[in-house]
């Protein structure tokens, strides 16, 4: 029953989206694609979510939000190299994008590059000091991991 209700809501939203202004706004289209991609990710369909988010970034390469969301989806897919590249694009578009730095740090962590993960987290903390306590916890974990792990180089 919940699945049917959710499907009904999604169909209603899709129908109402067509009732808007006669001239399509590119930003609105990208926002819709981002929402659609996030819904697919939330439903567990990572590949479909990535495909939709790629469309959003193709439609508006200057959307830092679309780039950041795509990077996050690529982390879910465990495609860390591509995720890092996508977060770099998001940061190039908006150097104050703390979530992109956090996402990049997570991708670097999964790649085993603790130094770059730490650098990205420190930049996120500089940009968004309100998240400092959470970032400090992750930085402490990175330091513990580095000190307990054999040297990578």
Task: Describe what this molecule looks like in 3D.
With 153 residues, the chain is mostly helical. It has one domain (22-148): Tetratricopeptide repeat domain (Serine Threonine Protein Phosphatase 5, Tetratricopeptide repeat), CATH 1.25.40. The protein has 8 helices and no strands. The chain has helices at 2-17, 26-42, 46-59, 64-76, 80-93, 98-111, 114-127, 132-148. Helix 2 packs antiparallel against helix 3 (46-59), helix 2 (26-42) packs parallel to helix 4 and helix 4 (64-76) packs antiparallel against helix 5 (80-93). The longest helix has 17 residues, at 26-42. The protein is globular, with a radius of gyration of 18 Å. The termini are far apart.
Question: Roughly what percent helix?
Answer: over 70%
Tell me which CATH architecture applies here: Alpha Horseshoe
The overall strand count is: 0
Uncertain regions spanning at least 5 consecutive residues = 1-26
Q: Write down the CATH topology.
A: Serine Threonine Protein Phosphatase 5, Tetratricopeptide repeat
Along the chain, the helix and strand elements come as HHHHHHHH
Major pleated sheet = none
Distance between the termini: 55 Å
What is the number of independent domains?
1
Mean pLDDT: 82
Structural class: mainly alpha
């Amino acid at each position: 029953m919940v699945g049917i209700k959710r499907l009904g809501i999604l169909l209603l939203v899709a129908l109402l989206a067509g009732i808007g202004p006669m001239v399509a706004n590119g930003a609105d289209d990208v926002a819709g694609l981002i929402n659609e991609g996030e819904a697919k990710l939330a439903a567990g369909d990572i590949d479909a979510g990535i495909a939709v988010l790629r469309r959003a970034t193709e439609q508006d390469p200057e959307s830092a939000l679309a780039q950041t969301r795509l990077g996050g989806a690529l982390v879910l897919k465990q495609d860390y190299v591509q995720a890092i590249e996508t977060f770099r694009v998001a940061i190039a578009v908006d150097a104050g994008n703390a979530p992109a730095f956090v996402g990049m740090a997570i991708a670097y962590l999964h790649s085993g590059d603790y130094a770059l993960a730490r650098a990205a987290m420190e930049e996120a903390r500089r940009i968004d000091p309100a998240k400092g306590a959470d970032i400090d916890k992750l930085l402490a974990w990175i330091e513990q991991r580095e000190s307990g792990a054999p040297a990578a180089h």
